[in-house]
Amino acid sequence: MENCENVFVMDHPLIQHKLTYLRDKETGSKDFRQLVSEIAMLECYEATRDLPLKEVETQTPVAVAKTKVIAGRKLAFVPILRAGLGMVDGVLSMVPAAKVGHIGLYRDPKTLAPVEYYSKLPSDIEEREVIVLDPMLATGGSGIDAVTIIKRSHPKCIKFMCIIAAPEGIKAFTAAHPDVKLYCASVDDHLNEHGYIVPGLGDAGDRIFGTL
Ligand code: PRP
Ligand code: URA
């Protein structure tokens, strides 16, 4: 994993291999969904690496063992609708006890500005670490607004997990939320004139839900 201050690029071979097939325009919705879920699962493994542990004693069939469990910090995943939904199954397979909130945002196709249409967060979010999920960080507008909305509920800590990020989005996001760690599988080249990431993978929401 390459680090640059608060930006973590997860270059694990399994993630990079799956990302290649995710980008391929010939990959259909069924395989695309599966790949998004698998990449999210692998990213979650890295993004939770800093969770604190505490020692406990466990009675095995043979003896008492000193072992470790995650110490108290509870997790909530918050996908940004729609495309973030594709990452939920994968992260829940790693942390089944996590709660799931939702933030509904879409990009206005003309201005590219995010428009909020839904928000529902776990009632005990103040006790939780939140990992926001969205496969794409393009201009950064949706991710920035989602984190701003979540911060109003005062979670213990917020991380942002995407699959592909544009340099423009990383710059805007880290300037707006310097306290939030950003995890991605690739930093791509640039945004085109329509705000799409180049080379990217096209419209993630449309490819997940087959609405192209
Ligand atoms: C996509 C994507 C992000 C956003 C990224 O969502 O899933 O939420 O665009 O772009 P930004 O960084 O410039 O804000 P979209 O608006 O297409 O909605 P959808 O998930 O419902 O398809
Ligand atoms: N949203 C997407 O789904 N893809 C992009 O390339 C940019 C924003």
TrEMBL record:
Which Pfam families does the UniProt entry name for this protein? UPRTase
Pathway(s): Pyrimidine metabolism; UMP biosynthesis via salvage pathway; UMP from uracil: step 1/1
Give the Gene Ontology MF terms in alphabetical order.
GTP binding; magnesium ion binding; uracil phosphoribosyltransferase activity
Superkingdom of source? Bacteria
Which keywords has UniProt assigned to this entry?
Allosteric enzyme, Glycosyltransferase, GTP-binding, Magnesium, Nucleotide-binding, Transferase
Q: Which reaction does it catalyse?
A: UMP + diphosphate = 5-phospho-alpha-D-ribose 1-diphosphate + uracil
Q: GO biological process annotations for this chain's record? A: UMP salvage; uracil salvage
Query: Which parts of the sequence belong to the Phosphoribosyltransferase domain?
Result: 9-211
EC class of this enzyme? transferase
> Which residues are 5-phospho-alpha-D-ribose 1-diphosphate-binding?
82, 107, 134-142, 203
Q: Give the UniProt entry's GO cellular component terms.
A: cytoplasm
- Known EC number: 2.4.2.9
Q: Which residues bind uracil?
A: 197, 202-204
Regulation of this protein's activity per its record: Allosterically activated by GTP.
Cofactor or coenzyme needed: Mg(2+)
Among its keywords, does the record have RNA-binding? no
Q: What does this protein do?
A: Catalyzes the conversion of uracil and 5-phospho-alpha-D-ribose 1-diphosphate (PRPP) to UMP and diphosphate.
The entry sums up its family as follows: Belongs to the UPRTase family.
This protein is called what?
Uracil phosphoribosyltransferase
